[in-house]
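Worked Example 4.2. Consider the chain below.
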Amino acid sequence: MDPSRRLFLAGTGSAAILAGCQKAPGFAPRSSRRVEQILHGIPTSDGDGVRLHRVIGQPRLRNLDPFLLLDRFHSDDPDAYIRGFPDHPHRGFETVTVMLEGRMRHRDSRGNDGVIGGGGAQWMTAGRGIIHSEMPEQEQGLMSGYQLWVNLPASEKMCPQFYQDLGREQLAQGTLTPAGSRLSVIAGAVDGLVGPVRERPTEPLLFTAVLEDDRPAVIDTPEGHTAFVFVGSGDVEIGPDATPVREGAIALLGPGHRLEVRAPTQRSEILVAAGKPLREPIARYGPFVMNTEAEIRQAFADYRAGVLDRT
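Applying the procedure from the previous section yields the following structure tokens:
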């Protein structure tokens, strides 16, 4: 006789039937991700002296497969950002710029030119190589956002370059029910909102959220993906243990199917990312990320010869 039917006939009720089903072979209950580690970024500078905090890519967190770098920039002091990021090369990965406030102009050697405004994003696949610049379009006011580097698998390292300039209106905007949190989805899908970034080999999920009250938000995340939450402002509690994570910290999440997060005391802003790990060797030097040291040497040789971005 079917075990659940035997329980029913024994008068144990629906709760016992559910418990019996949860223990049945092959049944995988949905699990919440727990916080495995909390880290803060370290102050540094990049480009032409732009001051920022390096979160991923620092000595304590060299990479978080498939994520290679996360920088947080946030300042209303023009001296901290005004000189921007003049021309510099990339090969072997993707750069993602998320603008919360301010304006940044992108130009590259493939002829792409656009302004990333507050609430917008840019997803650039460097692939075999590109030379680009990112320069502020303002001389005063708040400049706030993130830069995230996402690795490419060996089979895609030398793929053609690609550029997506995504204004605020192009991102998937909505409210996460029942929590009432405001979402802006850049890549992947959250609660029926689908971001505009094209299909990528790391199957990324990337969004920002503003948590307006203390009601918990529950967000599905792809099982098996590496995932993190960065707290841009305020403070949050994450996971079934309600682990506190403060402003300026990144929470590295363990395995699971979903993210539980709430802002217990104040309005809070977060950046959430998840990606399929590549589990490949990483050879990295400055703006180039490949699989072997020989490929890094070739990237520098191609850059010096002026053929880095030739298709």
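The chain has one domain: 35-305. The chain has a mean pLDDT of 90. Compare this with Example 4.1 before moving on.
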